[in-house]
Amino acid sequence: KFGGKKVGDVDMDKLNTKGGSLAVGHPFGATGSRLVTTASRRLQDENQRFALIAACADGGAGHACILERYDN
């Protein structure tokens, strides 16, 4: 909900409750590291197998990464 109103048709079970770059911060030159670290930690904490990371870059570029957690 945004301002008490539902926005779009977002599955609340898939909503990022930890926040994105606006909520956590967007450090110049370290965003990719922060995204990978946060996703890795959430995989462990939430006992999940996969995480998708995506970010934009200057000039219309961007990147994406899929992480897979392996149990020891």
Low-confidence stretches: none
**Alpha-carbon distance between the two ends:** 39 Å
Strand content: 15-25%
Give the overall silhouette: globular
Give the % helix: 25-40%
Strands of the widest sheet, in order across it, are 1-2
Mean pLDDT: 81
Major sheet description: 2 strands, antiparallel
**What's the total helix number?**
2
Following the backbone from N to C, one meets helices and strands in this order, namely HHEE
Radius of gyration: 14 Å
The number of distinct β-strands equals 2
Helix/sheet category: alpha+beta
Task: Give a description of the structure.
With 72 residues, the protein is α+β, with helices and mostly antiparallel strands. It has a domain at 29-68. It is 26% helix and 19% strand. The protein has helices at 21-24, 31-45, and strands at 50-56, 62-68. It has a two-stranded antiparallel ribbon with strand order 1-2. Strand 1 (50-56) and strand 2 (62-68) form a beta hairpin. The longest helix has 15 residues, at 31-45. The radius of gyration is 14 Å and the shape is globular. Keywords: Acyltransferase, Fatty acid metabolism, Lipid metabolism, Mitochondrion, Transferase. Belongs to the thiolase-like superfamily. Thiolase family.
